[in-house]
C-alpha cells in the first residue's frame, strides 16, 4: 500500500499548517487504473424472502436486490436483511450491495481526507477503490456496527466490544445498569469486573452488612433479559468477571450451577423448562457469561497445594484463607455442571498489557476476545484467510500483508469520526485507539492445505499467519503515528508498549516451521517485526492494541466463510441454500481441495466425497489412507478434535494477539471434573489469556424435539397387547421375468441374474463370480440363496441396500457401469445396481442412489441452468437431488425437518446438539467462538 513489505516506506511530503508533514502515498494492489471495481463483476437481481422454516411464516422480504453473481444466497440474505438501511418498501431503502459498500467506504475515505491521512486526492481515490474491491470480493469485512451505522443518520458507532467499570457505590452500581442497557439497545455487548464491590462478609459504613456483588448481578441479569439487543434480534450479551481473591468467590462460582439444580427440580415437577419454555424465565443469571480472574499467585498455590487468602475490598487485608486446590476444583465442578464460570488468567493478561501506567486490565467483552482498560471499546474487522490461498497450495503472505495494511488503516480512521454510547468510553477510546483486526476461515485453510487442526504443522502455519498479521498491523500503526501522532496515552506508557512489541517479536522467533508454506510466512513476519520496531521506536504507535480473534459470526456468513474465527470446521457436511429457493446437503467445498493437496486423483476424490456425503465422516472412506483421517477431524462428529487440540491451537496464536481469543473448548459428555480442571490448568501453563469449556448436554434446558414429545406421550399410555405375526413366504411362479447384468468391479468380472414377480418386485438373485467349484463361487451361491429367501419372506429390498451399500472389501474400485462408477466391494456394487433397477425414485432418494441421467435431469428441471446451477455444490455433493427429496430423506430418518448445518449434523450423529434456537427464524444455531450463530438469518447470541 504505502510500501512494499520489507522495503522502505514510500511517502510523500505535503504542506500541512506550520510545517512539513508526511502523508500516506497509496499504491494499487487489487484494482486497475481507470477501471472501477464495480465494473469488473457481473451483477444480478435477486429476491430475498426469508421464512421461519418451522411454520413457513415470512420474516423478511425484499425483491430485486442487486448482488454480484458469485455471492451465495446465504450471504445475500444476511446482508439484505441485516445491513441494508431504510424502511422496506420505501424509495429510501437500500437495494444494492453497491449502495451499502459506498455508504461505508466513502465515509471512511472522507474522514481520512479530513484528518490528514492521505498525501493527495489520488491516494484517497486509490484507497477507496482498494477497500471497495476487497469488500466486494469478500476479502474482509468490518464488524456489524459499521454496516449498521456508518453513513446513516444514526450515531456513527463502529465498535462491537465494550468494557465498563463499576465501583463500590450505589451510584456507580445503578449507572452500571443504565450503561449496559444503552449498549444492549444499540446492538452490542459489554463486560465488567465486579471485584471492587464489597463482599457479603464485609461491613457498610452504616454498620450493616454489604449485599455483595452476586446480589447486584441479579438485578443486572433481569435488566439484560428484558432488553433485546438491537431492539429485535437477540438477547443482551454480557460478561461478568470476579477476581479469585474476592471473599464471595465461592458464591459466584456456584451461582449458575445452583440455578441448573433449580431447573432440574422444576422440570421434574412438571414445569416447562425447555429453551423458550414459559417457565424458563424464572431461572436467574442466564444472560451473562461468568468468568473467574485467577492470579499467578493463586495458580502457584494450586500447583503447590497451598493456602490462598481472600481479601477485603476496601482494606486489602486477608479475611479468610481457603485451600487453593479445593477452590480450583469447585471452579472445575461448576464448569462441568453448567459450562460456567470460564477462566481468565490475570498474570498473563497484564504481562502483555501495553498501557499499564494508565490502569490494569480487569475485564473483557462478552466473548472474551477484547481485553483492555475499563470504560473502553474496540472496533473489529476480520480477513478471510481462504482468499490468500493460491492454486499451488501456498499462502500468499505478501498479498496478505498488503491487505492487512489497508484494513488496519481504515479501522484507525474510523475512530476519528466514531460515536460512543457513553462519554467515559468515548474519552478512553479516543485516547488509546484500540483496534481489533483478526481473521476467519482458519479451519478451512488448514484443511485445504492438508493440515490437521490438531497438528504441529497446522499450529505452525496458524502461528506464522497470526504473527505476520500482528507485525504488519503494528508496523502500519507506527507509520500512522509518524503522520498523525501516537495515541494520547503513549508517552506515559512508551516503555511498556515497546516491551510488549519485543515480546511479540521474540515469540515469532520461537515458531518452529515444518514446511515451505509456514516457513515463507514466518520469514516475512520476522522481517516486518524488525522493521516495525525501528519505526515504532522513532514514531511511537498510533494504537494501544491492534488485534483480537473474534467469533466472526454474521460477517463470516457475509464473506461466505466455511469456518468462523479460529474454529475448526463444525462438520464435513453442510446445509446449503440454493438460488431460487430450496436447499441441499453438500460436502464442504474445502474437502476436495484438501484431498487434492494430499495427492489424491480425481476418481479417488469423487469416491471419498461421495462416501462423506452419505456418512458424514471419513472413517473407512474408499481409498483414503488412515494417516490422512486427522486432516478431516472437526469440532463435532465421528472424529472430533480432542479438547486439548483446541487449547494447543489457541496457545500457538495467543502470543501474536493484542487481546485474546473468542473460543469455547468443546468436551464430550463423558468428560470428568478432573478433565475440566486439567484443561483450565493447562490454559494457564500454555500462556492463554482466557478459556471457556462446554461439556455436551450439561445444560438441562433443550430445544423441544419431536422425539422428546413422543417419549413423554408414550410414557402415559397403557401398554397394548402384543400380537405376534409370522412372515409368510411368497414363492415366485414357475415362469417369471428376469434380467442379467454383466459387471466388472476392480478388474473382477461377474454376472448378476435377477428374477421378479409378475406384478413387479424383486424376488430372487443369482450372482456368478469366480470359477465353477471355487470357494468364492460357492459362497456367492449361498449368499444369493439367503437373499432370495429373505426377499420372498417380505424383507424389503431397500433394507438390504442400506445394509450392504458401502461395505468395503476387495475386489473394489472402478466399475464399467456409468451409473455406479466406483464401488467399495462387489456387494456394494450389486445392491446399488439392484436399487437402481427395482426401487422407485423416492426410496432411492432416501438412500442417496441416483443414475447419472437423473442427476442431470433433476438439476436442470428444478434449479435451472447456467448461472442458476450450483456447480461447486454439484461437484462436491453426493446428493444433488432437489430439496423435496432431501427433506423426504430427513423425515424418514428423524421425522424432523432440517434448517441448518447443526440439525443436519444431528441426523448423522443421532444425537442432539446443545445449541439454542434462533429467536428470529427458529433455526437451530451453530457455535461461533464462544457465541452462537444462526445460518438462516445471521443473528448471533453475542457481540458481533
TrEMBL record:
EC number: 1.17.4.1
Domain Ribonucleotide reductase large subunit C-terminal: start-end pairs: 159-694
Keywords, alphabetical: Cobalamin, Cobalt, Disulfide bond, DNA synthesis, Nucleotide-binding, Oxidoreductase
Cofactor(s) the record lists: adenosylcob(III)alamin
A Pfam match: Ribonuc_red_lgC
Region (Disordered) residue spans: 1-21
Domain TSCPD: 733-837
InterPro entries: RdRp_reductase_class-2, RNR_2_N, RNR_lg_C, RNR_NrdJ/NrdZ, TSCPD_dom
GO terms, biological process: DNA biosynthetic process
Ribonucleotide reductase class II vitamin B12-dependent N-terminal domain location: 48-138
Superkingdom in the source lineage: Bacteria
Catalytic activities: a 2'-deoxyribonucleoside 5'-diphosphate + [thioredoxin]-disulfide + H2O = a ribonucleoside 5'-diphosphate + [thioredoxin]-dithiol
Ranges of compositional bias, category Polar residues: 1-17
Annotated SUPFAM superfamilies: PFL-like glycyl radical enzymes
One term of GO molecular function: ribonucleoside-diphosphate reductase activity, thioredoxin disulfide as acceptor
Protein family: Belongs to the ribonucleoside diphosphate reductase class-2 family.
Functional note: Catalyzes the reduction of ribonucleotides to deoxyribonucleotides. May function to provide a pool of deoxyribonucleotide precursors for DNA repair during oxygen limitation and/or for immediate growth after restoration of oxygen.
Full protein name: Vitamin B12-dependent ribonucleotide reductase
Annotated source species: Saccharothrix variisporea
Amino acid at each position: 500500500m504505502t510500501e512494499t513489505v520489507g522495503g522502505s516506506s514510500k511517502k510523500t511530503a505535503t504542506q500541512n499548517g506550520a510545517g512539513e508533514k508526511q502523508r500516506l502515498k497509496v499504491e494499487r494492489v487489487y484494482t486497475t487504473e481507470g477501471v472501477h471495481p464495480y465494473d469488473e463483476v457481473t451483477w444480478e437481481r435477486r429476491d430475498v424472502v426469508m421464512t421461519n422454516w418451522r411454520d413457513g411464516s415470512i420474516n423478511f422480504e425484499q425483491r430485486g436486490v442487486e448482488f454480484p453473481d458469485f455471492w451465495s444466497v446465504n450471504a445475500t440474505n444476511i446482508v439484505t436483511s441485516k445491513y441494508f438501511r431504510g424502511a422496506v418498501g420505501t424509495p429510501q431503502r437500500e437495494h444494492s450491495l453497491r449502495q451499502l459498500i459506498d455508504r461505508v467506504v466513502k465515509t471512511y475515505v472522507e474522514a481520512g481526507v479530513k484528518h490528514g491521512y492521505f498525501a493527495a486526492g489520488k491516494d484517497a481515490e486509490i484507497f477507496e477503490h482498494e477497500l471497495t474491491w476487497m469488500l466486494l470480493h469478500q476479502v474482509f469485512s468490518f464488524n456489524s456496527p459499521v454496516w449498521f451505522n456508518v453513513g446513516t443518520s444514526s450515531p456513527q458507532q463502529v465498535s462491537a466490544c465494550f468494557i465498563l467499570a463499576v465501583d463500590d457505590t450505589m451510584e456507580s452500581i445503578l449507572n452500571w445498569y443504565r450503561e449496559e442497557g444503552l449498549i444492549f439497545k444499540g446492538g452490542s455487548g459489554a463486560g465488567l469486573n465486579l471485584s471492587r464491590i464489597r463482599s457479603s462478609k464485609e461491613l457498610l459504613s452504616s454498620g450493616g452488612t454489604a449485599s455483595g456483588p452476586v446480589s447486584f448481578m441479579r438485578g443486572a441479569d433481569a435488566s439484560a433479559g428484558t432488553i433485546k439487543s438491537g431492539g429485535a434480534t437477540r438477547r443482551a450479551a454480557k460478561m461478568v468477571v470476579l477476581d479469585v481473591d474476592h471473599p464471595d468467590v465461592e458464591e459466584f462460582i456456584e451461582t449458575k450451577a445452583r440455578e441448573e439444580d433449580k431447573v432440574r427440580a422444576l422440570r421434574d415437577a412438571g414445569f416447562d423448562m425447555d429453551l423458550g419454555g414459559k417457565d424458563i424465565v424464572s431461572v436467574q443469571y442466564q444472560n451473562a457469561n461468568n468468568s473467574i480472574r485467577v492470579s499467578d499467585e493463586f495458580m502457584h498455590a494450586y500447583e503447590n497445594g497451598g493456602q490462598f487468602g481472600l481479601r477485603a475490598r476496601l482494606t486489602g487485608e486477608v479475611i479468610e484463607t481457603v485451600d487453593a486446590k479445593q477452590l480450583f476444583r469447585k471452579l472445575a465442578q461448576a464448569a462441568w455442571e453448567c459450562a460456567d464460570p470460564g477462566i481468565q488468567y490475570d498474570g498473563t493478561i497484564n504481562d502483555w498489557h501495553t498501557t499499564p501506567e494508565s490502569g490494569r486490565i480487569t475485564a473483557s467483552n462478552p466473548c472474551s476476545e477484547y481485553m483492555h482498560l475499563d470504560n473502553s471499546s474496540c472496533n473489529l474487522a476480520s480477513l478471510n484467510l481462504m482468499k490468500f490461498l493460491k492454486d499451488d497450495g501456498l499462502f500468499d503472505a505478501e498479498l496478505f500483508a498488503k491487505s492487512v495494511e489497508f484494513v488496519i488503516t481504515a479501522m484507525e480512521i474510523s475512530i476519528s469520526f466514531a460515536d460512543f454510547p457513553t462519554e467515559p468510553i468515548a474519552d478512553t477510546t479516543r485516547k488509546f485507539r484500540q483496534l481489533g483486526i483478526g481473521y476467519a476461515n482458519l479451519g478451512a485453510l488448514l484443511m485445504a492445505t492438508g493440515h490437521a487442526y490438531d497438528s504441529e504443522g497446522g499450529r505452525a502455519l496458524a502461528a506464522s499467519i497470526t504473527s505476520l498479521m500482528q507485525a504488519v498491523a503494528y508496523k502500519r500503526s507506527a507509520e500512522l503515528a509518524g503522520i498523525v501522532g501516537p495515541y494520547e496515552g503513549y508517552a506515559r506508557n512508551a516503555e511498556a508498549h515497546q516491551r510488549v512489541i519485543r515480546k511479540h517479536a521474540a515469540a515469532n522467533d520461537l515458531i518452529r516451521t515444518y514446511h515451505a508454506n509456514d516457513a515463507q510466512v514466518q520469514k516475512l513476519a520476522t522481517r516486518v517485526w524488525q522493521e516495525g520496531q525501528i519505526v515504532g521506536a522513532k514514531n511511537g504507535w498510533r494504537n494501544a492494541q491492534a488485534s483480537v480473534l473474534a467469533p466472526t459470526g454474521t460477517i463470516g456468513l457475509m464473506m461466505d466463510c466455511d469456518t468462523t474465527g479460529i474454529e475448526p470446521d463444525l462438520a464435513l457436511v453442510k446445509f446449503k441454500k440454493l438460488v431460487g429457493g430450496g436447499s441441499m446437503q453438500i460436502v464442504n467445498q474445502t474437502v476436495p481441495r484438501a484431498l487434492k493437496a494430499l495427492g489424491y486423483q480425481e476418481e479417488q476424490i469423487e469416491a471419498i466425497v461421495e462416501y462423506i456425503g452419505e456418512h458424514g465422516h471419513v472413517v473407512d472412506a474408499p481409498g483414503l489412507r488412515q494417516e490422512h483421517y486427522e486432516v478431516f477431524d472437526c469440532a463435532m462428529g465421528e472424529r472430533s478434535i480432542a479438547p486439548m487440540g483446541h487449547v494447543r491451537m489457541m496457545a500457538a496464536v495467543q502470543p501474536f494477539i493484542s487481546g485474546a481469543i473468542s473460543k469455547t473448548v468443546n468436551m464430550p459428555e463423558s468428560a470428568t471434573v478432573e478433565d475440566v480442571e486439567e484443561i483450565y490448568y493447562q490454559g494457564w501453563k500454555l500462556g492463554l489469556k482466557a478459556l471457556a469449556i462446554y461439556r455436551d448436554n450439561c445444560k438441562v434446558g433443550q430445544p423441544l424435539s419431536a422425539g422428546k414429545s413422543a417419549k413423554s406421550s408414550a410414557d402415559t399410555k397403557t401398554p397394548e397387547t402384543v400380537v405376534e405375526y409370522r412372515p409368510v413366504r411368497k414363492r415366485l411362479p414357475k415362469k417369471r421375468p428376469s434380467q442379467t447384468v454383466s459387471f466388472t468391479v476392480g478388474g473382477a468380472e461377474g454376472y448378476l441374474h435377477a428374477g421378479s414377480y409378475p406384478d413387479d418386485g424383486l424376488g430372487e438373485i443369482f450372482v456368478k463370480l469366480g470359477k465353477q467349484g471355487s470357494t468364492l463361487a460357492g459362497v456367492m451361491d449361498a449368499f444369493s440363496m439367503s437373499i432370495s429367501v429373505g426377499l420372498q419372506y417380505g424383507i424389503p429390498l431397500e433394507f438390504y441396500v442400506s445394509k450392504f451399500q458401502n461395505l468395503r472389501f476387495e475386489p473394489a474400485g472402478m466399475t464399467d457401469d456409468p451409473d455406479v462408477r466406483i464401488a467399495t466391494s462387489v456387494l456394494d456394487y450389486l445392491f446399488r445396481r439392484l436399487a437402481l433397477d427395482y426401487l422407485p425414485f423416492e426410496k432411492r432418494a432416501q438412500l442417496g442412489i441416483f443414475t447419472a441421467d437423473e442427476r442431470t435431469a433433476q438439476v436442470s428441471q428444478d434449479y435451472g441452468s447456467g448461472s442458476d446451477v450450483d456447480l461447486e455444490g454439484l461437484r462436491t455433493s453426493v446428493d444433488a437431488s432437489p430439496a423435496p427429496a432431501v427433506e423426504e430423506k430427513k423425515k424418514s430418518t428423524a421425522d424432523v425437518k432440517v434448517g441448518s448445518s447443526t440439525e443436519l449434523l444431528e441426523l448423522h450423529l443421532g444425537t442432539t446438539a446443545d445449541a439454542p434456537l434462533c429467536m428470529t427464524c427458529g433455526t437451530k444455531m451453530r457455535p461461533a467462538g464462544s457465541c452462537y450463530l444462526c445460518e438462516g438469518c445471521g443473528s448471533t447470541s453475542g457481540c458481533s
